[in-house]
Specification:
The chain is 91% helix and 0% strand. It has 57 residues and is an all-alpha fold. Helix 1 runs antiparallel to helix 2. It starts with a helix and ends with a helix.
Length: 57
């Protein structure tokens, strides 16, 4: 897994943040929760990538 995966995870996290902020602004709790979930999944994937890099070195 390389830089492309890391960039995709960062983009997914940003999308999650945008959904969460939009949900906050519109009082849409479902969208807010969906954004939080998307952000969490992306952050976990990113942590996995960092762990793999640590073991490679």
């Amino acid at each position: 897994m390389g830089i492309g995966d890391k960039m995709k995870n960062a983009a997914d996290s940003a999308k999650g943040k945008m959904k969460e902020k939009t949900g906050d602004a519109t009082d849409n709790e479902d969208l807010q929760a969906e954004g939080q979930a998307d952000k969490s999944v992306a952050d976990l994937k990113q942590a996995g990538e960092k762990a793999k890099d640590a073991f490679k070195n």
